[in-house]
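Q: What would this chain look like folded?
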Amino acid sequence: MPVKEKPQEKPFFLLIDDRLTFSWMPKGADPGYYSIRPDGSVNGTTARQVYSFTHFDIWSYGTNFFQISMYKSDHNDPANPCTNAGEIFNPSTFTLTPASCAGATDFYGLFRSTFGWNEIFGTKAFTIGPLRNISFEVGMDGQTANTSLASAKRALVSGLQFQFTLPYKGFFNVAPLAYWEFSNHNAFAQCGSGFAGPVPGVSCLVDGNQSYNPTWAVETNYYMDLGFLPESMQFFAISGRAAWYGKKGAENNPLPIAPPFNVSTGVEFNSEPIRLTFDASKAIWGPKWSHYVDLWVAYRYWQNKFGLDHAKSTVCNIAPGVSNNSCTESTVYSGLTLKF
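A: My prediction, written as structure tokens:
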């Protein structure tokens, strides 16, 4: 008797993509950290080495994206106990002590998960023209740094993602989201720090943990191979992202401190509008090894970094109208990405 073949089980993950990246950022920025050059000009930039691990997978009902990065700064963005480049500040005497502190180390991680409406409802009704799918999206951001501020950001996002098709197997995603930075640490606002006032809940926070108001966000990203190039040159792709995060309350929320030390946060714009990628492994070893080794160059622009209003915040300015250039990050940077 003929034996019926058992149907092959569908794998849980349809795609798993893990990558390691090293990049060099010559003109990064960390709000509030700057130095004065011998000629009197302000240096608000800091060179950074960036080490990143990225995971992306596709499963039956959606996608998962996770990234964690370690940023190692130069001395212009110093680690604790320096409160600024080359100096330790004594708040009890308001004096500065010269010091040589190592550059800060900052960890930033995020994940985003989507659940496709086509997959959930078993339909193709949400594929119309260039629209490929609509999805529910949830995620979280987390960050910590060993600077004198000792920041420790925790944020949640939820909303929708609209996925569109671009030529040459490309895509463009746009996600309107609710965003809530429910916790962040500020050592300077902590009671007993010497920087904040003496009244818990009014002029200082007992543990230094801040909480901001829920707000809106829009996150976008795109990718497209440059398939219009001659076949002998089809090793290039462009990609990018842009995200806007709404005002989330006062800078020292929830403390009811009056301006100018507690101005409103600004709309944060965090972007990498373009990245040009060269698929080195495909160029050397052929299509089977596509994107196993990528070399890339990108431009990064981050205005009102961490929500601090670059024009009004005392963190971003030496004096009213005199910027310390640390709350806007604008840099070309490059890197190497390995797929495994």
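The longest strand covers residues 13-28.
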